[in-house]
Amino acid sequence: MAEMNRKHLSKTAWASIIGKWVFLGIIIIFTLYPVVYTVLGSLKTNAELTQGGGFFPAAWHFENYYQAFVQADFTKYTINSVIVSTSVTLLAAATCSMAGFILARKNFAGKKVLMALYLSMMFVSLGSVTLYPIYELLRALKLNKTIFALIIALTGGQAANVFLVMGFTKGIPRELDEAAIIDGCSLYGVYSRIILPLSKPILAVVALFSFRNAWNDYITSLIMTISMPKLQTLTVAVVQLKYSVNAAAEWHIMLAGASIAIIPILIVYLFANKQFIAGLTAGAVKG
Q: Where, per UniProt, does this protein localize (predicted)?
């Protein structure tokens, strides 16, 4: 009987392990397939893509990358994307850290209402409905023809990041705040000298999320730069590659541009993945 139980447990354990690996394999395939398809598609001819050729290119057309780089003026649009994404990242990290600190440490009138509104915005997506009033507001402020309009528009909607920082801050002992106040620190001193240095792991997560969202954004960047094409970001420029002077959609050139546009976000993740994982883990435990 004991031997049969051991065999049954052994089979159950193996089934569980195989099931986990199958599940992980499916997730990996669904995650990597779009990237692999984009890279391989960027090396095909337009005819191969539109007529449904094989998965791998019949011939490797690396000249697609040169055409994409020249047609899209990637240098100019890459600079725009770097300026926008970096600015959004810094602003998001600063505003989320301050908002998360106040929500975690202070009680004030209307706090519950504010948090309820923040929570509702996390689950109710208004999407493009909000773009017109945002654009009109920025136009009234005479900012619609500057790159600051896009930066401000992309910095908004940080409710999820605010709650990440708030949950992390709640895990920091309040005794540290009290000790700092006894030593003469003001509220700003507690934030800058105690909370901010200890919040680096979760701020790395916020920064990476913000950079990724700003770099990959299309619709907001398109609307905010529609009257100023020279301020367009790389994502908008890549989509424009599809429209050629020959009146035919050049998907191979667009995929080549998309492959180039993927590189910076991969580089950022490779350098920040340790802080990203550490921040998510710390936030999960302390939140």
A: Cell membrane
